[in-house]
Amino acid sequence: MVKINELVNYTQQLMQVERFKDYCPNGLQVEGKNEVRKIVSGVTASMALLVAAHEAKADLVLVHHGYFWKNEDARVVGIKKNRIKFLLENDLNLMAYHLPLDAHQQYGNNVQLGRVLGIEAVDYVGEDNLIAYGNLSQVVTLKDFVLHIERQLGRAPLVIGDFNQTVRKIAWCTGAAQGYFEAAIALGVDVFISGEISEQTTHLAVESCVSYISAGHHVTERYGIQALGEHLANKFNIEHEFIDIKNPV
Questions:
Q1: Where are the domains of the chain?
Q2: Which fold is adopted by the domain 2-103+221-242?
Q3: Residue range 117-218 in CATH 3.40.1390.30
Q4: Residue 49: how many CB atoms within 10 A of its CB?
Q5: N or C end of the chain: which has fewer CB within 10 A?
Q6: Per-residue model confidence as pLDDT tens digits over 49-78
Q7: Three-state DSSP class for 59?
Q8: Is the model's pTM score more than 0.85?
Q9: Rounded to whole angstroms, how far apart are CA atoms 199 and 130?
Q10: Rounded CA gap, 147 and 151, in Å?
């Protein structure tokens, strides 16, 4: 087991939290029991994940999407009240890492998605180095690359582009990163992968001749939190279990 304060202090330094101006607090968001023997990780701290974590006998819930977002209603009512009440009644700790987890170059969402897809990151650019880019081991058609993504992620992506196009240089940023598309275009890539897409993204893809792949917010962000949970479990000799609460977005 490990004391929660020791685990939090280590993870705060590992994630370099002070580097980021984020939309939510990173680290311990709801305090529970003092000792941690098991971590359950997941993408979002929904009620379904909290219940599953409690049933799995977790002491700590570790997520990418936690609570207390900038500009949200600060009152503890309704859904927020139910979630926090469940955590407190069951003495569950909740830790969340948002942008620090996206950007981390060992355990982060971007580097881990790249590994799942077989793309080694050459470098990271943009705000907080949130855009990764690299090359495929060989040139393939967009059609074959999209089929590869579907096989690896278990979800058919939405694609804007010519399926006969040949691709090799790829940029990517998990989650809702469609706003970084123009920065990716400036890198001279063939394809940009993100989790979500907006109406204007289609026009940028067509007019730039850079293909856009919307692979799913949830599925592109499953891998960083697993890697971080596994690392913490190994570091402190405790248990870890990733629980995937399905989400079509």
A1: 2-103+221-242, 117-218
A2: 3.40.1390
A3: yes
A4: 23
A5: C
A6: 999 999 999 999 999 999 999 999 999 999
A7: coil
A8: yes
A9: 22
A10: 6
